[in-house]
Amino acid sequence: MRDLLVPLLRLPALEPHLAALRPHGIVVRRSRSYEMSQTRRFVSRFFTEQWADETLIAFSRAPISCHIATHERKIIGFAVADVTARGFFGPTGVDPAYRGKGLGTALLLAALYGLRELGYVYGIIGWAGPVSFYMKTVNATPIEASVPGIYSDLLDPDE
After folding, report:
1. Would you say 112 and 17 are in contact if contact means Cβ atoms under 8 Å apart?
2. How far apart are CA 4 and CA 75, in angstroms?
């Protein structure tokens, strides 16, 4: 999988995506320091230990570079930025029970706006999964010769 480049100065508006979630009691916001353990548990439960480790780095940033989606006082999604490498988006994920409601888009935009607030003009989506989604949603473009990129020496996850 290759990396994608995102022009952060041309992001679509975030507020309409947040507003569409509010009637369902879903809030997307920047995580708070005292939510680090809960966020790590959520990521470990639904995704991987490696993603949970990356997510912890977001809590060492100022401001915290983790955004979460919540419903009924529970985390149902997350997105981090500026953790794998400076200017990188991800990992990100949504509880399977809440997929298809626009949470992924809202979390993506919230995290990318966070990068923009830090002064970045371009963001990188590393080892992008749903490339067509990113291209359509945030005008991402593939970065040629970006494979394997920063992930060239990944450790065996079973070690």
Report:
1. no
2. 27
Assign residue 86 the CATH number of its domain: 3.40.630.30
Does 110 reside within a domain?
yes
DSSP string over 98-133: GTTSSHHHHHHHHHHHHHHHTT-SEEEETT-SSHHH
Counting as low any pLDDT under 70, the low residues of the chain are 157-159
Contacts of 25 (CB under 8 A, 6+ apart): 71, 72
Phi, psi of 4 (to 5 degrees): -120, 150
pTM of the entire predicted model: 0.94
How many angstroms separate the most distant Cα atoms in the chain?
Answer: 44
Helices (H), the chain: 15-21, 36-46, 49-58, 103-117, 131-138
Q: Helix, strand, or coil here: 85?
A: coil
